[in-house]
Description:
Immunoglobulin-like, alpha+beta, Phosphorylase Kinase, domain 1, seven-stranded antiparallel β-sheet, 40 strands, about 25% helix, four-stranded antiparallel β-sheet
Amino acid sequence: MFAVYVDSCKTWHPPCDELMTPYLFGKYCLLERVSVGGMAEVFRAKPLNAPDFNGYLALKRILPHLAEDDEFIMMFVDEAKLTVQLVHPNIVKIYELGMFQGSYYILMEYIAGKDLLTLQKRVRKRKDVIGIARSVYIAHEMARGLHHAHTAVDANGVPLNIIHRDVSPQNVLVDYLGNIKVIDFGIAKAAVQSTRTQVGVLKGKMGYMSPEQVMGLPLDRRSDVFAIGTVLWEMLTNRRLFNAENEFETMQLVRSAQVSAPSSENPEIPPDLDALVLRALTANRDERFQSAEELANALGAWLSVNPCGAEDLSTWMREVFAEDLDEELSKRDEFAKIQTPDDIRRLSASESVSLLNGDDDETADKTQIWEGDLPTPGVDPLEFAAQHTVVQAGGFDIDAYLAEQRGQSAPPKFQNGGAPMGYPAGAPMGHQSLDVGFQSEGTRPGFGIPLQPAPKRGLTAPMYATLGIFVVLLIVTGALAFKHFGPSHSATGAVLVTAHPPTAQVRLNGAPFACTIPCRIENLGFGKHLVEVVEDGFEPVSRTLEISSSAVIPFDVVLVESGPKTGRVKVAFPDDIEVRVFVDGVSRRREELEPAFDLPVGPHLIEVVAPGFKPFIDIVEVKAEPLELDAAMTPVGFDMTIQAEVDSVVRFDGERLGTVPVQLRLDPYTIHDLEVSRNSKKDSRWQSRLALPQIASKLLFVNFEQKKTSLREKDFGWLTVSTGDDWFSVWVDGIDTGIITPIDATKRVPIEKGERVVSLRRGHEQHDITVDVRGGETTFLRENFTFEWK
């Protein structure tokens, strides 16, 4: 039986570890929630009034608390519009982008299996491994799918330039037939996005980013190649590759990308596979595989000698998750009983208030799935759903799905009987190609939905306020598509143009087209037509649309205001210091930058440096509005507080400063002499010398019992650094010294002896060099680094 819906989850969220009461959501029934994250939840679903449909779909829905977040809604819509153009066996297929009663959803292929993270956890619990050949096969299929995404083009042949940016175990699915699917293009970077990542904002999982991604550099497809390499390394070793106590430390690990061969953790891994993995994980992307296809070819060549494929992976999956498959068969028996809204009423009536009859009960808000008006008694819920659902582009075509299944043979059986979850009884085992895609005709009136023209009434005021202009445009598009829906046998089609602002003008094939927004262009002959939307003060938008049927093609446009291409920047320089100024890494004369100067709109690096002062560094976003910066300069040095027992006296560099606590200003170019005593007795005196890295400590508490730890002058060496023509900031063991290169012999820096990591940083660049500082000696660090602002 289905479990009673309880209060343990928020409004209408089913318990995460139990079967939920089935719910009606538009023309679909939500059977169970299969996953939930911080932004969306995914349900197993099936269409109603479709007795021949024995399979499942996945319905991804925005969580209620994000329904008012316009930026997230746009990202959600971007994901659907982007992924629907990716048709490949290794990428989950999207069927429908819709909105039901204010809730946005994506309808997609349901995958019968587990994500890669679950696989790793299961084998770790079993004290087992996925297996070397199986791991390589999974990575090979991932690379094939991502290469398709990287090289995908739109209907007009224009490259989409997709980069996934979040390739991780959670976003790779392995089904029970041994097939691999890459999912979740929610933060993918593409040329067609409505949303853009802000400068300085990192999106993705830190441990699976590439070095260039954590440094905020421009990304290309090689970033995803690095992520595939990370996932493969972890599958081969069953260990995390980049994992620290906090995100900052993890970011540093990724940034340096000092990766050991996987054979160091798993001795069974052969040298040729070691070399392949390490090439994918090279920090310098020019030395990596230059595309996912190149990586897939290399993995495929390895698999040709060490065979493994879907059949082997399927057998292993069914053995590892045997109990899960048994549980699935029990679920399928219950789900098969649900075909109509009456079935939902029957299953729900004894456990919770009936949502379908619109009962007004005090517990209704705990199980409410409908938002807004409820269907009144006597009204068919499916008819109500049809009139309260907007599908932006097409919809799931069940007739095409069933037609595809009818000409195919029965599948092989599992050992425990039945088909794996997500596959219809009698369907072939293998990739299920539901080749229906996004159509252009609005919601289909299929499988028993008596579709009628939408009532001529607008959305409620709360919905307008919540979802904004984008939703209004979406609803207008859908409503008009419903109104004009109907088959036509003529060789003409139509385009429905909606735009913001609604005063925009439409041009057809280069000539003005007389109409007002929303604008319906009818009787367009089959073939390609150029549609343009223009308005004074806004950037024009044009698209070539191909008319191939009588369907109405929606063309939704939100025009972006055109503005100046440059912005004005004013920097307040210090009056009493002679400084050098760099803009995007290029030296500029101070005189040409005062009182203000122009820069192209976008991110820029402003640097002001002077000897003896910490550099002023700022990455700014130049916009149309004037930007003012105060280039305040701080002298190089460190502040430290000396603390000890009460009444202890401090002497610093031979000068008596008084009793504790005492504030000191420490010069990094000097070895300082510190003496602390609590009385006149000789054995109550603590004395030591201080230099980098100790002087970076903000507080020094003197313990008179630890005299042996005090440092002498012979415990220090000196450092000089040269980086060629370009300057860099000098960090020692992660400490910003405030000093810039060059550091010559006349101004050498004392450092406690031992192995030190010297980091040379500027902009997004960082060069880490390990040096052995010897007491009483000078270490000369000579490198020739050329800085480039990208």
